[in-house]
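Work package 3, deliverable 3.1, input record:
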Amino acid sequence: MSKTLQLPKIIEDALLQANPSTSRRNFLKSSGALILSVGVNSIPGGKVLAQTTDSGPYTDPDFLQLDTWIVIHPDNTASFFVGKTDGGQGTGTAFRQMMCDELDIAYDKTNLVMGSTDTTPDQGGSGGSDGVERDGWPMRRVAAEARRVLLGLASDYLEIPITELVVSNAIITSNNDPSKIVTYAELIGGRTFNVSLTGENVNATSGVANVKPVSDLNVIGQSIQRYDIPAKVDGSLIWAVDVKLPGMVHARNVRPPLVGATLRSIDESSVADTPGLIRVVSRGNYVAVVCEREEQAISAARQLQVDWAAPSEAPFPASDDLFDYMRSATIAANSASDITGDPDSALEAAEHLIEAEYEVPYQGHTAIGPAHALADPSDGQMTIYSNDIKSYGLRRGVAKFLGIAKEQVRVIYMDGPQVYGRTAADDAGFEAAFLAHELGRPVRVQWMRDEETAWDTKGPAYTFKLRGGLDRQGKLVALEYAARAADYNHLGYNQADTVLIAQLMGIRPSEPAKGRSVTPSIKYAIANQRMTADIVSLPLIWGTPLRTGNLRDPNGPQVTFAFESFIDELAAVASADPVQFRLDLLTSSDEDDLLRRARSIATLNAAAESFGWETRPSPNPQISEPGSPFVTGRGLGYTFRNGTVVALIAEVEVNRTTGHIWVKRLVCGHDCGLVINPAGLSHTVECGILHGLSRALWEEVQFDTKKIKSVDWVSHPSLRHSDIPETIEIVQVNGDPNPDRPDLPHYGAGEASHKPVIAAVANAIYDATGVRLRRPPFRKERVLAAIHAQT
Amino acid sequence: MTIVTLRVNGASHEVDIDPATPLLYVLRNDLELRGPRFGCGLGQCGVCTIIVDGAAVRSCTIPASQVSGEITTLEGLSTNGMLDPLQQAWIDEQVPQCGYCQNGQIMTAKALLNQNPNPTDIEIRTGMEGALCRCMTYYRIQAAIKRVVQGAVVSATPETDQGADV
């Protein structure tokens, strides 16, 4: 086993994208001194690396020091250090573009290190699609500050006033005399800035310099290819699953076979003859086996005989009974209650009263690669190699869980399978650290497929009841929205008292953290409305696989499905075109919302125009070819998320004989303000939509009253190649429709486009068939039953 | 334990293992290859796909001792240091999001094109059906395969060299 805590060279190479420059920490420790530092492009093959030995303690990188964020190398290249992670949406590339623009350096002369707790400032990791929207700002400001400082140094060096200097690609020259020239490297390469920044928190970090106006940005707006992709397609990238350390052993968990069961005893003789067995570890209801080799741990975990006592009460109703249970359950908490105007009188006076109920099941993350982590306890410290998007939280949580100082813990963030929120990567990180702490040697843990699908955190199930009133002209005059979310005890990130290992050990906070039940975030102007959103609990609160946690826009797909389906139902009763009906609802004189509504209208119009939307009410009057089971329809879903507007149009083909749905075409109008990387944005939007399509067509966590029945890709299907549309068009609206207003800032993407998909597909199915589906997923059996119920 | 001989990416390896060990763990942990990854252990998702004698094989379920043919992993696709056209197309189309499944996508596509160099759109969908992606990069995967089928790919990217020792 490793006796000195040295970050393996190959890992640091990977963190620097195979362009090793210098040891970050040694560089910073050599404050002020000229040290041997080599640039990002100067080392063929990336096989040379400065000394990286570092045995802790691991102090927090100081976000108020410019040197924490930016290093200029002697070869006039630069490295950026940011406290974010990139689940593959290209945010790393976007951050580099933003910082390059402000620093005035070419993109290919830089690299970026992300999310490793001892080398990058704590920006919290990722989540909420806010990387570009929020965390990009301090990155831009510190890069602008570095440029300002360099200009000051150049002014002294060249003896020319700053106002007469120009910068291009990290070279500063005189306006008047091209022979007066100096590079960033000549000014500071290999040395530290020693410049303090200000800001009461990392998000507010700033220097003295202003960021550039949009008209001066050049790198921003380019479709630069993602730097991380080549190594992902040639097999050379080192992922968190790939890290190997001397003396490393492999662990697998043994979960209770019945939810809520308690451990009576373990028969260790059942694995006594397992080759490579090192130890069976258990505490409370947490059980794991540790073996020399990975396949040995897998076998031993299956072979281990454990006596579990079944719970006295069912932990939850069966999934088939879930919604009846939720509707009749006692409300555990209220999340929202908002009344505008006089909805009761307006509903009573309405010409048409429309009512509908909707349901959305639990859906899971079900990462393609089950949760994993490697923890190394060498030298009394704890180093965790993980793809957890919130590496800083993992560090703090593990320190608390193990009862050690956080300075003894560091998390090295590395690539891993997709992570949209609070995934089981949190849980695996704690398990690896606990087992490494117990055994005193590096332990790698990875969950098995059934564990991942059954036990990862879930997006909450919802029930909805909506009522709407139309006047004689078909105008919406009143709306009532009542939601219930099964989201009691919503897990936070990396909490030492809510991660799965803690729950199974019996560790828990004094009371659960209630989750959220939310109201729609749309911008319709409705004079009279009542919006309520309540939370209900399942019988078992702790140690359950139906633990809820943030799943990609945690409540958005559910809420937008119900609300945008209902708007479509209202439009149909009003015999109105679904786009026009929404446009009519987006008129208001409310100044505060004027820009948001104007952007919504522009985005809806852009999507409709690109689609070739024919103005007419639903359903589609077109009759299918005689003898053909196929009918087609189009449907719209609109949403507003933080600053981002999405209008998604789906065209579906329904086989009325089999119930099979194929979404043939998707057109997405998308406005997220200033675009950093247009191609990257389109890819992220596209994948967000298709993830939503998977939730619309396939995904549902099924269970009986004892256990989760969704345990693999057969019992829990996901979108496949055959489901993919013929064409997907992303229309980037991106901008204020009013040319007199200043440029919009950069808002987030990813979650926004994920949000309206279920609604758009349901509305398209209605348009095609006249059948309204009020509960996803729209698998063929459900569609066929609804078609039969109609006829 | 038994000595098992494997031919992988043109080289011969002898490993001393339990002969029932799934090939995946031998490739990853004994031969330290990083292309094939664990996804399900059930042969359902394709993340662990390798090519044996030209055909796609799920390395998570097949015992290492039962594989006698020539094994190619993602690392072995490039020739003379240049990427396979499929890999180049994956870069040109900017296919991966997280990338964890892309070994399975590329290797399944390679085996598909070995068998059928000119697949129709339907044949691409059918041939790729067993390769799952949870980032939902399918649309671009299909576009990348079509690029190769159309001969529109020029390999210009040397494979990444990260061959440093731990």
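The radius of gyration of chain A is 28 Å.
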